[in-house]
């Protein structure tokens, strides 16, 4: 029987895949009185965000900022490129592909969905077959999730662009980078992405509340063809404001902007290439621990078998013994460590949902935090009597040490 004593007092660790850990520097930047929104420093601060947002997205093109979450960014992007009745292709590799498809349907689009399940990346040949059959080019856009936060799969957006180019298909390539921007390598211009959406609460290390839509000139031309676009979602005044309020369609999200400025400064100081490398190293450490725990027929399994298709920001896991929920509860109650739920892996009324959980390792994370996370999980499995291979934390430490 496990000891019931809790040692959860002290600073909690939120290891969920968003909202991510907020750096103290970002919190301090936001901890201020409300500023003047009509003139003064807030205007110049906002202007300074645009080139740095472009730098993180690896684009020279346009960016529009919205006061919303990722779902709002989905709708904002689609509202600027689709008319009711337009057809979109959605290759779904988890819950969030289905979510974006549902938003498109709600705007009156006809959705063609290719289902790849919950544990596999996009199959480019199946996508090519669908596009090849679209001889009349009725498909106006392909909506692809770079990293699906539910399944933790990372899709090859560059390869998807190659499929479109090889077939000469004119559909816009639209990418959801809500879970991946600032964590996994993403090259908007080099990969030929026409529209990209993201949000503030993951790799950008700012509280939820800001959505971003990046778009190139091809997408801007499509917007110009539409006869009607929502006044609020219209990206034209936001990307090219004549007055300050047009950045946001009204009152600015003042304190989020201060936080975003601090977060972008941190990314610039570290260097984006190093940010990507840090996330990759820490993700590999987590995978080494999980592989060790799953040895000798242990019940722990990673949702994505092939490391080449795993996200560097989130890892989805399952316990075949069905104790995922119990492990999460024990860690929260006894260690002050919160893991993510197994989102979308089983129906809410299906007992199988208790197998699944996720680890968020995005944004403001370092080696000692990841080792603490893994040490906590190993402790919880021991306390609950969950079978596991020995040496998981040591395997992770070797990866972090570069051994």
CATH class of the largest domain: Alpha Beta
Q: Can you write the helix and strand succession as a string?
A: EHHEHEHEHEHEEEHHHHEEHEEHH
DSSP, total strands: 12
Percentage of residues assigned to helices: 25-40%
Total number of domains: 2
The total count of helices amounts to 13
Which stretches are low in confidence, meaning pLDDT under 50 for 5 or more residues running? none
Specify the structural class.
alpha/beta
Radius of gyration: 22 Å
**Overall body shape:** globular
CATH superfamily of the largest domain: Type I PLP-dependent aspartate aminotransferase-like (Major domain)
pLDDT average, as an integer?
Answer: 96
- The order of strands across the largest sheet is 2-8-7-6-5-3-4
Q: Compute the separation of the termini in Å.
A: 37 Å
Largest sheet: 7 strands, mixed
Kindly report the CATH topology of the largest domain: Aspartate Aminotransferase, domain 2
Strand content: 15-25%
Structure description:
It is a single chain. With 403 residues, the chain is α/β, with parallel strands linked by helices. The protein has two domains: 13-21 and 271-400, Aspartate Aminotransferase, domain 1; 33-269, Type I PLP-dependent aspartate aminotransferase-like (Major domain) (Aspartate Aminotransferase, domain 2). Helices cover 39% and strands 16% of the residues. The protein contains 13 helices and twelve strands. The strands form two sheets. A seven-stranded mixed β-sheet has the order 2-8-7-6-5-3-4, with helices on both faces. The longest helix is centred in the C-terminal third of the chain and has 22 residues, at 272-293. The radius of gyration is 22 Å and the shape is globular. The protein starts with 12 loop residues before the first strand and ends with a helix. 46% of the residues are buried. The model has no long low-confidence stretch (mean pLDDT 96).
């Amino acid at each position: 029987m496990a000891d019931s004593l809790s040692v959860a007092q002290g600073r909690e660790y939120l290891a969920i895949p968003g909202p991510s850990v907020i750096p103290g520097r970002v919190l301090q930047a936001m901890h201020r009185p409300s500023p003047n929104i009509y003139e003064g420093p807030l205007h110049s601060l906002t202007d300074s965000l645009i080139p740095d947002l472009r730098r993180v997205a690896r684009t020279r093109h346009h960016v529009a900022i919205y006061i919303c979450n990722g779902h709002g960014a989905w709708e904002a992007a689609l509202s600027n490129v689709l008319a009711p009745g337009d057809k979109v292709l959605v290759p779904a590799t988890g819950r969030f592909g289905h979510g974006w498809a549902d938003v498109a349907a709600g705007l009156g689009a006809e959705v063609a969905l290719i289902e790849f399940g919950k544990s596999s990346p996009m199959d480019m040949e199946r996508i090519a077959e669908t596009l090849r059959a679209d001889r009349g080019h009725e498909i106006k856009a392909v909506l692809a999730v770079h990293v699906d936060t539910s399944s933790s799969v990372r899709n090859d957006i560059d390869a998807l662009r190659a499929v479109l180019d090889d077939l000469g298909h004119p559909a816009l390539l639209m990418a959801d980078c809500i879970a991946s921007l600032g964590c996994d390598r993403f090259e908007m211009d080099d990969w030929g992405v026409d529209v990209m959406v993201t949000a503030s609460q993951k790799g950008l290390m700012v509280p939820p509340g800001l959505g971003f839509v990046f778009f190139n000139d091809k997408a801007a031309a499509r917007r110009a063809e539409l006869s009607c676009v929502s006044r609020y979602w219209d990206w034209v005044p936001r990307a090219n404001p004549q007055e300050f309020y047009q950045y946001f369609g009204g009152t600015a999200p003042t304190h989020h902007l201060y936080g975003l400025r601090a977060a972008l400064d941190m990314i610039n100081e570290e260097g984006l290439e190093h940010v990507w490398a840090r996330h990759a190293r820490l993700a590999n450490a987590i995978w080494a621990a999980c592989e060790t725990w799953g040895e000798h027929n242990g019940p722990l399994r990673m949702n994505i078998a092939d490391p080449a298709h795993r996200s560097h920001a989130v890892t989805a896991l399952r316990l075949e013994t069905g104790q995922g929920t119990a492990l999460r509860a024990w860690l929260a109650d006894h260690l002050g460590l919160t893991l993510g739920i197994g989102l979308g892996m089983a129906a809410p009324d299906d007992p199988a949902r208790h197998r699944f959980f996720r680890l968020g390792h995005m944004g403001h994370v370092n080696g000692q935090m990841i080792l603490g996370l893994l040490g906590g999980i190993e402790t919880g499995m021991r306390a609950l009597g969950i079978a596991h291979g020995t040496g998981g934390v040591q395997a992770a430490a070797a990866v972090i040490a570069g051994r």
